[in-house]
Amino acid sequence: MTPKDLFDEDGFVAVPRFCDEGELQTIEGTLARFIAEDVPGLPAEHVFYEDKAEANTLKQIQRLHEHSGFFGELLAGKPKRLAEELLGEAVVGKNLQYFNKPPALGQATPPHQDGYYFMLEPCQALTMWMALDVVDEENGCVRYVRGSHQAGMRPHGRTEILGFSQAIIDFGQAEDSEKEVACPAQPGDLLAHHALTIHRADANISTTRSRRALGFIYYGKSTREDFAAYEAYQAKLANELKLTGKI
Ligand SMILES: O=C(O)CCC(=O)C(=O)O
To answer: Of 161, 192, 205, 223, which is most buried, counting CB atoms within 10 Å of its CB?
Structure first.
């Protein structure tokens, strides 16, 4: 089966060694400089910490492609070509994110469908997630519900989890657990999932290992975005997070 066949059937596909050692080293070097030099100056709504008083608890950076030429080129490069192959149409790169679950502190990622956040009609988009660390069940690997992209959008509700403000409210049905697949990954391995595929991750319960990854989001050219609703939600969320001191 081709990666596209697997993606169409399961709603996700793993691509081992998507980036080689040299590519990873370049990404790691640029990311380390970006975190040290640029992150302190980013808008608060683009940078999340488990504890904002502790710089080493950095958990998410949003819109890396807008803040760095290197990451802008990365979003437009090899992952974009794979996104077009998997989605079967031309795509637009929408976001490049950094995710971490710091040792012992990194919270669980609640079960969700990315499309709920994206507000698209039709929901024709995908996310790619590339590991930067060794990721396994202990430090919170991504888990997909196989085939869930074929069953439409599930109801979501507000969470208090910074960076994942919406979760599926009726998750945990027998089918969810029976069809859930844990996806451990090595640095450079990539997972791609459809925007309707249900996924989640456990907390990082290791005390020494971080759990870092890059996330790439692409929308199919055929989809229509509800810009007004999206912007209004993001603005309301940022306001709430500021008022409650989370960012
Ligand atoms: O890193 C994670 O735990 C979740 C990432 C995610 O939800 C996504 O890339 O869509």
So the answer is: 192
